[in-house]
Amino acid sequence: MMKHVTGARCLKCARLWPAKPSLTTCPDCGGLLDIEYDYDAIRWELNRNTLSARRELSMWRYLEFLPVEGIGRRPRLRVGWSPLYEAEGLARKLGLSRLFIKDDGVNPTASLKDRASAMAVVKAEEAGAEVIACSSTGNAASSLAGNAAAAGFPTYIFVPSRAPKGKVAQLMIFGAHVISVDSSYEDTFKLSQQAIERYGWYNRNAAINPFLMEGKKTVALEIAEQLGWHMPDFVALSVGDGCTIAGVWKGLKDLHATGLIDRLPRLLSVQAEGCCPLNRAIAENKPWEPMEENTLADSIAVGVPRNADKALRAIRESHGVVVNVSDQEILDAAKLLGRTCGVFGEPAGVAGTAGVKKAVEKGLIPAEASVVSIVTGNGLKDTPNAIRAAGEPVRIGPSMDELLAVMERL
Amino acid sequence: MMKHVTGARCLKCARLWPAKPSLTTCPDCGGLLDIEYDYDAIRWELNRNTLSARRELSMWRYLEFLPVEGIGRRPRLRVGWSPLYEAEGLARKLGLSRLFIKDDGVNPTASLKDRASAMAVVKAEEAGAEVIACSSTGNAASSLAGNAAAAGFPTYIFVPSRAPKGKVAQLMIFGAHVISVDSSYEDTFKLSQQAIERYGWYNRNAAINPFLMEGKKTVALEIAEQLGWHMPDFVALSVGDGCTIAGVWKGLKDLHATGLIDRLPRLLSVQAEGCCPLNRAIAENKPWEPMEENTLADSIAVGVPRNADKALRAIRESHGVVVNVSDQEILDAAKLLGRTCGVFGEPAGVAGTAGVKKAVEKGLIPAEASVVSIVTGNGLKDTPNAIRAAGEPVRIGPSMDELLAVMERL
Predict the structure, then answer these.
(1) Separation CA A282–CA B190 (nearest Å)
(2) Is A21 domain-assigned?
């Protein structure tokens, strides 16, 4: 809670600012900010036993680790505490010792982004805002629209026109004012920033708003608790803007700083071959450079990652591994996860698992390792790509003869 | 658990049979069967306090009320314990005292049917089956495919070819053998029955398999516990085959028989105007007759309801209310739920809420009543109808001038 927050520190100039609800980037130098806590105070209030006795089964279970006064007075959706499945069959198939799938696609608007949006809604209430806005490749948008609708906030939302139908349908149903921009995510983001400044809306652009990463980090807190505080060797996830991997790392470091876990996993950063500016920077040990957005995994098709600094720092600090996957490998992973685990992820959602497979094959992850792979969004958001991955069903007339003919072939 | 099960009683001839895992209809007369329990024994083991101390947050929380030996040894998805939201804003809009939304669209395969499919998988394991099969308008199919995939069971699944893309995509991703039948649900169902007999598959057709309703009833057990055992005046839901409303009623009666609740709510049975054989039977107090399947709400487009007897009995026993809604009223309800609650339901999923609105308007539900409305499936399963309900977004180029022009209009 806010009483544990010591401030927001600039990544560039290291200055510490008071953590006001409407804070975005560093007022001095424009750098990204990181929320800091008094970890000794948290350690004093919280341990494994106090946590395990809690009945709140949502991201707000970890209130001491969150930069809020409370959870607000408005109605809210139940976000977080998504299931963590041990995937024995899939682990065997991939030649891995242990593999766990964290299915964040069962969140209320069906993606991990609900964690950031739920945080945005609480902070907007604290800031006394009347309207919330963001730009997004899709999931941040639909999650903001849904969480804000539950809380009674109007929203203005900017999406690139390539956003999949499923996500756009959500936005419209949730009553958001949607502006579909006929251009790249980069242009969409810039236009939203101009509009937010002009109209004074609350800014839910994840990279710019330091509180949102604090919402996202709850996925890491849950993983730790669900594994009984025995950390895996790797946490794998797909990377676009960089906010989620940075959030996961922040969560892990927070847990480590309070002694709730005694070792830190390494991150596996998975990007699409057609759009991997962050992984390229790591692999070549150079500053990142913009790339085109050539992948069907729309949520991670981010040529100009807005949270590059935090993401690169997270991967490096964790002694992380990077791997890029092709669109075909992503589609194959969707089928593999569905068939072996009963988990249906969108392309960006399963890219992390595609990366685990590839990293094992390439020897980047050893066979004896334990891995948690986060599925960040539900496959129902992008039906056409699911059909592309898995094909169409056999179609027959209502007759036993036609069925028998089909059964012969199967 | 099985030790509390006294048998399976035929609805027609009242004979009591041993509750074998592979049981379907009455071996004597072909009537539908109902699982019966020793409620005194359950009452002895279970009370509000023992339940509230449980950490299992899924449908298996209520093991004493379920006809299983245990939860099986195979991996499983986390089904149930879906959120119950108080919808204050929507209640005001509808002129109702209190309204709660039970969002079953956040289940692993995004519909209430996961409750029945999870049960089917456990019973198939108990029966020593190797393959599970069903026919379905879509949700039972995709939930069986997903839950069976997690548990390692192959599936054969029959769907009418009109099933929405989202549901078919799930089936294919989960690796089911899918047979898409170019005909009505009725013909699809019959073909599946013939194939199940011929190949000896485990039968997950909900009306035929008496155990599945026991899975579905868990939604009612959860509602009761989530409301602190204070029952609402009405429980509203959409009705197709009739299994879900029958399951809800079974759950409520089970709770009542063990003294966990002291009064029974009335059921609000909502069907589509274009396909309402059960509601028509109630309204006209006549036996039900087949109807055409004229509604966009595919999950309740059931002209020949397979569970008519149990459904009609449930509505009558509860002194229930019936109301039919038009496709436009269903689409309007989707928008209304999205805008006021942040809950996105598929057409059949929101039909219950459409019915609540209409029942209040018609004076069938008094303004001072409290109502729980069950949203049975996620709107992401049927994106085209969501777009039809809510429209397309405004599309502009990446320029502030174009945005300003749009803002003037909004």
Answers:
(1) 58
(2) no
